[in-house]
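Sat 14:20. Reprocessing the chain from the morning session after the first attempt stalled halfway. Input below, unchanged.
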Amino acid sequence: MPPPLLFVSPAVLPVGSDAAHTTHGALMDLVHQLATSLGKAIDAKDPHTMAHSEEVAEVARHLALAMGLSSEMADCIHVAGHLHDIGKIGVPDAVLGTPGSLTPEEWVQMQDHPSIGAAILLPLACLRQTGIVDMVLAHHERYDGGGYPFGLSGSAIPLGARIITLADSLSAMLRTRPYRPAMGFAAACREIVRGAGSQFDPQVATVFLGEAMTVRGMLGPDRDAGTTVRR
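Finished this time. Tokens:
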């Protein structure tokens, strides 16, 4: 049995007072600012990954709102989108930039990055209690149980992580990687259709397809041309 995720219950803040809402709002503003800065730092590890985390965060938040999630939950997913790859700071550059298939040893190192990221964020109570740590930890799980690090499946994967998985995959497919060219947006949509129920939550995939043209506009006109990025 895979181990349970670390913190699956969002924090319940006191309600009924303006002070409580003000404190929560100020905290989330600070978290957003820090997450944005950290996401940029992650992307800056390679100039070709610039803006990837921002792209994932924006698409994930849009999909969360399109699915009817609360603005508070969408904000948490947005933060997790910025931070989803923070664990790559613990993966050697030589592995991230490998131009071909990874060796078994390199693949093990690559699969460590969600756990590394969660360990980095774990000391921050606001990220634990809002489920953000779990979203980062689970963003490479697959709906069919074939992902990592725990092989979780279906609803055992936090919904925020399922949304980020699709946003992350979309961004990656639209970019040239060392081992393959970029896909066009239509081809990426076909891959998402193909992966619905296996890699992706079918509900998330359905919502994405309904929002595809809006998402395409969010990504900008240059995305089909591709940008070289690492894994």
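The mean pLDDT is 84.
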